[in-house]
TrEMBL record, chain A:
TM segment ranges: 27-51, 71-88, 100-118, 138-158, 170-188, 200-215
GO annotation, biological process: protein repair
Biased composition (Low complexity): 1-17
Domain Ferric oxidoreductase, chain residue ranges per copy: 69-182
One Pfam family cited in the UniProt record for this chain: Ferric_reduct
Protein name listed in UniProt: Protein-methionine-sulfoxide reductase heme-binding subunit MsrQ
UniProt entry tagged with the keyword Flavoprotein: yes
């Protein structure tokens, strides 16, 4: 989830760059991170505005819970897209945004869980635990969030040093499992209504993102 | 579409009406798309006139009935019903229509008519959602004959004193207030009296989740969520607590005897 100094993904590309990097690359500008930070807050800003302006439809609680879940998945997918994009577009500078994107995925996943617990379950902890125990798709979602916690907790530089890069990297490979579990949560949620159109889109993109990594590994 | 206040027992719920805007913009009508906002956006392509309904099967007087005749079968009544969706939300809606039994009696069902099967329109030209494979079209629903003949079972032609908006199932739909909403078939084109229990579209799609009866029952959970509580649409904003779901959606006094001695966990 964060940019490790010696990540395998960060290894220099096997082919020479097609063109020399531009002198003052905009992606390296200090403001780039600030801009990304603000962009990542836009969905939340919209939901906060929508909640106050009554713009979240007839069932605002459902809109919020589902919307926050959607954004958690989207940001996780974008995080996973950083390394392939960096290689495909030959933009090594993209790596510096990966940690922030991953943390935002965790942030939206946490808001999604909070919205479910609060708006749907009235913060009744016993009821939430019963729900997790009883319903596989809730268990899936909760598992994905729990697995995100150690990644978020070790996302700062000192944690990388303390763990040592190889261990840190091994831990952060969990992100692949989290994406699969998160996708299953989404598929299962839609299964009862036979509505697989969106999960199919997310699934296809994830297949490309993970498939590319597998293919690259096999080729070596 | 004016209607006189209904005198049927239980036909007027004394609860705050759900806003017209919510009733007509938050719908499950998969023929127009799977999002709740899709029907309101897409249903303008539906042509509710001219319209006719075929009544056939185990009855003495089958036939095809035009909408103008259907509107005259019985006086229009206003009925304020709770609507409980299987997804865990609810509304209170003032419908306009008459008891389905008034129409069914005209066809003179025979002794073999144990169930009634409802088929709804599935026209790709008018309904974009029918191109998707979400359900096996056309949408089919069914009731036991005594359920269909119950005075609360409503053939609705309007809501809020108006002709039914397309997204709510124009020009005529069923409203069975003690069952989950999907049992109330919309835009009906065929009513068939049958001897064997019909297979509903949702039962066909997911048998463990959607049974034939699908009576509102807080003690029988959906496999993926609890049915003990519901969210009343438009009630007190975002942090309103979910309200407890009532047995038979609050119509137990009127319909409880239909299910006397039945195991409602098995017959979900």
């Amino acid at each position: 989830m964060t940019s490790a100094p010696t990540s395998t993904a960060a290894a220099s590309p096997t082919t020479a760059p097609r063109r020399p990097p531009a002198k003052r690359h905009p992606l390296l500008h200090p403001a780039a991170k600030v801009v990304l930070f603000l962009v990542c807050l836009l969905p939340l800003a919209w939901y906060v505005f929508g909640a106050f302006a009554d713009r979240l439809g007839a069932n605002p609680a459902e809109t919020l819970i589902r919307g926050l879940g959607d954004w958690a998945l989207r940001l996780l997918w974008i995080t996973l897209a950083v390394t392939p994009l960096r290689t495909w577009t030959n933009q090594p500078a993209l790596a510096r945004f990966r940690r922030m994107l991953g943390l935002f995925a965790f942030f939206y996943a946490s808001l999604h869980l909070l919205a479910y617990g609060w708006l749907d379950k009235g913060l009744d902890l016993a009821d939430i635990l019963r729900d997790i125990g009883k319903r596989p798709f809730i268990l899936m979602g909760f598992t994905a969030w729990m697995l995100l916690v150690p990644l978020a907790a070790t996302s700062f530089n000192r944690a990388i040093k303390a763990l040592g890069a190889p261990r840190w990297q091994a831990l952060h490979k969990l992100v692949y499992a989290i994406a699969v579990v998160g996708l299953m949560h989404f598929i299962w949620m839609r299964a009862g209504k036979n509505n697989f159109a969106e999960p199919l889109v997310y699934g296809s993109i994830l297949a490309v993102l993970l498939g590319w990594r597998a293919w690259r590994r096999l080729r070596r | 579409l004016p209607g006189v206040k209904s005198t049927v027992a239980g036909a007027t719920v004394m609860e705050k009406l759900t806003a017209y805007k919510d009733v007509t913009s938050y719908n499950n009508f998969y023929e127009f798309g799977t999002d709740k906002s899709d029907p309101a956006e897409n249903a303008h392509t539906l042509k509710p006139r001219p319209w006719s309904v075929v009544i056939e099967g185990e009855c003495a007087k089958p036939g095809r009935f035009g909408l103008e005749d259907l509107l005259k079968v019985a006086p229009m009544e206003e009925r304020v019903y709770r609507l409980r969706c299987v997804e865990g939300w609810s509304m209170v809606i003032p419908w306009v229509g008459y008891s389905l039994s008034e129409l069914l009696k005209k066809a003179e069902p025979t002794g073999k008519a144990k169930y009634v099967e409802f088929t709804t329109l599935a026209d790709k030209a008018q309904m974009p959602g029918v191109r998707s494979g979400v359900l096996d079209w056309p949408y089919v629903e069914g009731l036991r004959i005594d359920e269909a003949m119950h005075p609360l079972t409503l053939m609705a032609f309007g809501l809020y004193g108006e002709v039914l908006p397309n997204q709510n199932g124009a020009p005529l739909r069923l409203v069975v207030p003690w069952k989950y909403g999907f049992k109330s078939a919309k835009s009906i084109v065929k009513i068939r009296f049958v001897e064997k229990q019909p297979v509903s579209s949702w039962t066909k799609a997911a048998q463990q989740e959607y049974g034939f009866y699908s009576n509102v029952n807080p003690t029988v959970d959906h496999p993926r969520w609890s049915q003990a509580t519901e969210r009343r649409i438009g009630e007190d904003g975002l942090f309103a607590k979910r309200r407890p779901t009532l047995m038979f959606n609050g119509y137990e006094a009127q319909v409880g005897q239909l299910y006397a001695g039945m195991d409602l966990k098995k017959n979900y």
